[in-house]
Design goal:
19% of the residues lie in helices and 30% in strands. With 53 residues, the protein is α+β, with helices and mostly antiparallel strands. A two-stranded antiparallel ribbon has the order 1-2. It is flat.
């Protein structure tokens, strides 16, 4: 599951798609704002609710 799926010599890790899927599986939403040649902003929303009875 955690392997590189291409032969790019500078590949480092599992990739953004796999990371997004794993993080969303535990209840965190990820949003990305990106501008070509400028920057990318990643926003993580932690949606945890705790109920005390």
């Amino acid at each position: 599951m955690y392997k590189t799926f291409h032969k790019h010599p500078e590949a480092r890790g599992i990739g953004l798609f796999m990371t997004k899927n794993r993080v969303e599986a535990i209840g965190v939403n990820i949003h990305v704002k990106s501008e070509v040649g400028l920057c990318s902003t990643f926003i993580a929303e932690f949606l945890f609710c705790y109920y005390i009875f």
